[in-house]
């Protein structure tokens, strides 16, 4: 049994004990905490606290649930001299992330053509397990993608330079050596660039339903009763293979003797293997940025057919599964740290050099998707998040039920019927995929964002409601 101490209405602590190097902090309401107690989330947060070189706290955001090694929703920062890097702290879907596009398309005008537009997008953006792209990319192209990220997409006419300004890291991690990526990973990624994938990945057209902060919404280019477009996907088979490859390499080199959980396998950040994983991970990160950029271009092309004068701008693209070297203030001292965010969003406040120039005065957009039948949210990063959570907050609704549970409880027809009652249309790559991602398998996203806002680690700006959903 994990010992829990309540710090405030929605902050909990697991006190440092035994092999823990630091305490653990969990951001959750009473209701969300009850969900976390149903699986191994708390145990995983505690186990992460025992890793070498961890700084301040092992943390879980309000959407946390059990994952591989780290909980999904886990955040941990490691000292660059004594610390480690762990594939389980990044996840198999490296740089699974989300981008949101603003438009000047009025809701009324979109609704007249909603079915046709969704169907056209489904035909233009391949999705589903193993589905390949319609474009033909060579191995040389793929290697360029892994080095250049979204830059490659812009060079090849999949978007504009303005898109780079509104992508985390401008869509490109620089320490990315293709030599550190296996031929198997390259083969798996070769025909999947510009594809959505399966599982919880989606493409969603939404209406701007409520604005909490007019000034910041305007800065993000978002106006009420217009539509927005959200794209959620990652690095496909390439990222999964990079994770698998380096988990095996680290197991072979370091073993499990001192680990609280073998899924926390890791390498010292400064070791040769640690550096190689960081480089290979960055290659997968770049692939994922480029993947979302290509998909966005395909979506823009569809919308142009129906609304030739439409303005469709990238608000922001942010990674949810990543480890990054960042500078943070810890106990009054500036430190460079390796921050793992596994199912967590970067939430930097005003003035951070890493965020786009036109958002410097307000902070970084934080995108928290809902669950197909529920609202999604755009928040804004804060200085408080930098102080409390190494500039991090939640990344979505977070699962509370398994895919097996969903398969027993629902049918595809029931889900479509329930969504139709909410005036949401859906097209899915498979009936099983639709069932496994039923809205009921997720936590209450309203509660997740409320906890973020209440703790000042990501403040509410806009609520978006789904109108048309494409599931992988």
Which CATH class is shown?
Alpha Beta
Structure annotation, total helices: 16
Structural class category: alpha+beta
Radius of gyration using CA atoms only? 21 Å
Q: Approximately what portion of the residues adopt beta-strand conformation? A: 25-35%
Number of domains: 1
Number of strands: 19
List the helices and strands and how they pair.
Elements: E1 5-8, E2 11-14, E3 24-27, H1 30-36, H2 41-48, E4 54-65, E5 72-79, E6 84-85, E7 97-106, H3 107-111, H4 114-124, H5 139-148, H6 150-155, H7 161-165, H8 183-189, E8 202-211, H9 214-219, E9 226-233, H10 236-254, E10 267-268, H11 272-306, E11 312-319, E12 321-330, E13 333-342, E14 345-346, E15 365-368, E16 376-380, H12 383-389, E17 392-393, H13 403-409, H14 412-421, E18 425-428, H15 431-436, H16 445-454, E19 459-471
Parallel strand pairs: 3-4, 18-19
Antiparallel strand pairs: 1-2, 2-3, 4-5, 5-13, 6-10, 7-9, 7-11, 8-9, 8-19, 12-13, 14-17, 15-16, 16-19
Helix pairs in contact: 4-11, 5-11, 8-10, 10-11
Q: If you had to describe this structure to a student in words, what would you say it looks like?
A:
The strands form four sheets. Strands 7, 8, 9, 11, 15, 16, 18 and 19 form an eight-stranded mixed sheet that branches. Strands 1-2-3-4-5-13-12 form a seven-stranded mixed sheet, with helices on both faces. The protein has a two-stranded antiparallel sheet with strand order 6-10. The chain has one domain (5-400, 442-471): tRNA-splicing ligase RtcB. It is of the alpha+beta class and 472 residues long. The protein has helices at residues 30-36, 41-48, 107-111, 114-124, 139-148, 150-155, 161-165, 183-189, 214-219, 236-254, 272-306, 383-389, 403-409, 412-421, 431-436, 445-454; strands spanning 5-8, 11-14, 24-27, 54-65, 72-79, 84-85, 97-106, 202-211, 226-233, 267-268, 312-319, 321-330, 333-342, 345-346, 365-368, 376-380, 392-393, 425-428, 459-471.
